[in-house]
Every structure is written in structure tokens, then in C-alpha cells.
Amino acid sequence: KKKLLVDVDCGVDDAQAIMLGLADPNVEILGITCVHGNTTVENVCKNVLRVLQACKKLEIPVFKGAAKSILGITVGDGSFHGQDGLGDAPDAGAPSLDLIQEENAVSAIVRIVNENPGEVSLVATAPLTNLALAVRMDPTLPAKLKGLYIMGGNTESRGNTTVCSEFNFAADPEAAYVVLNDYQCETYLACWEFTCYSQLPWDFCDAWLGQDSDKARFMAKIFRHSMEEAKKDSGCLGFTGFVSCDSYAMAAALDDSFVTESDCHPVSVELTGTHTRGMMIVDTLGLLKKTHKACIMKKILGITCVHGNTAVENVCKNA
Ligand code: BDR
Ligand code: CA
């Protein structure tokens, strides 16, 4: 089985990414580490437990990590994912935070990767604070990873948080800088513009959420708020569906054939600049003199099929 560690700031698309990973029988999620971002790290922990509860996987260990960026800032304002990060949908039966592990998320990343050298892929769908701290604790960590899959950054200087920066990088530019420069392992980036071009049509979302299952009912409940926000203004030009940003990083980690085209270049992050702090830099000419290249996802498998109106084989045939 593929071994994954998942680092999240559990908003709605993080929840979708986690559920995608949990649904894959060929994957073992060794732990989920939580970090500030869409909401407070305490809410993130609670949200991850709610997702695991909905999927009947509460045995997966959940670790609490950094509450603030390296410079001590938090940026999540709750406008898209709700104040609690999962659409502010009441949940009287949420699991107790007592289930959160005592070990800190950063220590857990270092420990789990060292226990499984060369086997663990890290999926990061959040500000990169935990990952930056982990490589400072253990500089040998990146060399022991199988792969690193990040949702974050941007390639066309089109931001969704500041004019030029994507949320996960804007929330902790220093951490993004450390990760892009110090994790010299196989790296895939699902950047903001790429995820914008890969939208889930609204009628697909309706069919998905309308299914008769506990997981679909949970998703429908937490998804309502951000769906309404996205229909008003997603920040993506020409938007016609939902952008489940974090799911693309997860899908790439799950399935080696998911990314059909990528551009690999040295990348870094702008740390100063009137408008550009947090913006990702793509060094197409090699002027930074860096040897390590990250692969920026460009194209993915066109159409994915799922059971629903008919058997999944028929769905594929019809598509
Ligand atoms: C990223 O920001 C968060 O709001 C989402 O969960 C995603 O990780 C998109 O810019
Ligand atoms: Ca996220």
C-alpha cells in the first residue's frame, strides 16, 4: 500500500481531499497533521476528526501543529469556508478533542518519515508552517520522503488572497520559501491557476451530494456555505463550477497516472515586495542556479467516472 501523511488546515476542500485519500483501498494514511490556515488549528483538529468520523476512520492518528505562521500571523477570515472551516454547519455529535494525539504534528512528521524511510509521500494542502519546522528539526527528512504533493502557489501572478499570492503561500511565505528550497525531493505542485482550470461542474456537485450515503450527507452539510460563496465569486476567471483545490494534490499522490503533463522548474517564493509577497517564482531560465526542480501540474486525466446513474463501467463507456 502507498503510505501517506496529510498536512491540512481542514476547510471544505481539505475535507474532500482527505475523503478521497481514505476512499482508496491501496493507500494507508499514517497520520493527519493539522496547521493554522482556513481557521484556527483547534478548529482544524476538530474538523479532521469530524471527517474521520463521517468516514468511520477515527483510528487514524491526528496531530495538532502550528497555530501561527513562522512570523506569528494568521490570515484565515472564515469568509469562504465559514468561521469553523466547515461551513458553520452545526454538528452536535462531533468527536471530542481528547482524540488528538499528545505528540506535536511537527515531531510526528519527523518520526513517521524516519520510521518509514523512502516510503512516505507527504500531501500538504495548507500553509506550509509544519513542513518548514519539520525540515529545520531534521534536515535529512526530504531525502527520506517518497514524494511531496503540495496545493499552493501560483504561476501567473494571479492571487486569490493578495493580488499576487495564493492563500497557502500568502498565509506563511517564509514557510513556503523554506519548503520549496529545502525539500529537494520529488515534488508536485497543484497551483491555484491550475486548480481554477479544473472545476467540478455544478450539476456534478449536485449529483455527488445527492447520493444516499452518510458521507454524501456529511459533505452536503459542510459544503453548502462555500458552494454559495463560490457561485457568487470564486476568484477564478470564467468560473462555472467548484474548485476543489486540495483534491488535486491528493489525487496526484494517489495515482501516478493522474498528472498527464507537468512543467518542472526551480521554484521559490517572493518574501518582500509591495504587491508580491507570497507570490511563487518560477525560474524557467535557471537564473536562480538551483538544481532542484518542482513539477507544476499542467494537465490531468480528462474525465473521471463514478457509479451513480448507472454502473461505473457504463459511466466510463458513456463518457
Ligand atoms: C487553498 O486555500 C485554502 O482556502 C484551500 O483549502 C486551499 O488549500 C487554495 O488557495
Ligand atoms: Ca487547504
TrEMBL record:
Highest rank taxon of the organism: Eukaryota
Protein name listed in UniProt: Inosine/uridine-preferring nucleoside hydrolase domain-containing protein
Family stated for the protein in its record: Belongs to the IUNH family.
Inosine/uridine-preferring nucleoside hydrolase domain: residues covered: 5-300
One term of GO molecular function: hydrolase activity, hydrolyzing N-glycosyl compounds
